[in-house]
Amino acid sequence: MPSFTLERIISAPPEDVFDVSLDVGLHLASQRSHGERVASGRTSGRLEEGEQITWSARHFGLRFRMTSLVFDVDRPRRFRDRQIRGPFGSFLHTHEFEPLDAGTLMRDTIDFRSPFGPLGRVVDAVAMRRRLIRVITERNDAISAHFA
After folding, report:
1. Is the pLDDT of residue 1 over 90?
2. What Å distances lie between residue 57 and 16, 27, 90, CA to CA?
3. pLDDT one-digit tens code per residue, 6-54
4. What is the Cα 14 distance to its own chain's centre?
């Protein structure tokens, strides 16, 4: 299964970075360029253990919906979300927060797989990994800017 990890140092305590990472409003603002909106679920505030949210966004010129489940919440160290319905064959996002003298090391690990077997593997290799890195980087830019 394809995967990647992004790391970033944020000048804020882990508790604050953790909370902002679960904030629906910040997520929507960070994905404005993709026309992201909430199709169902919480529309503001912080997501919690067991919550489901359906995001709707435009990627590759098409509108997609993805329903995610937030789980394994261990504030302020880690939480995960996974697709329970949507365009991926499999999608798991692990968010980790480690305290540093300078603030917090925020780590995002994405494990994903496009559907359609061999064709999906080609899509993952050619375009999907790069697209997901861009989307997560945009989100992390918004989190960094929040604390600037």
Report:
1. no
2. 27, 12, 18
3. 999 999 999 999 999 999 999 999 999 999 999 999 999 999 999 999 9
4. 17
CB burial of residue 118 (10 Å; 0-12, 13-18, 19+): exposed
Give the chain as a 3 state SS string: CCEEEEEEEECCCHHHHHHHHCEHHHHHHHCHHHCCEEEECCCCCECCCCCEEEEEEEECCEEEEEEEEEEEEECCCEEEEEEEECCCCEEEEEEEEEEECCEEEEEEEEEEECCCHHHHHHHHHHHHHHHHHHHHHHHHHHHHHHCC
pLDDT tens figures, 57-74: 998 888 999 999 999 999
Give pTM, 2 decimals: 0.95
Give the Å distances, CA to CA, from 8 to 19, 102, 107, 117: 16, 11, 7, 33
> Which amino acid, 47?
L
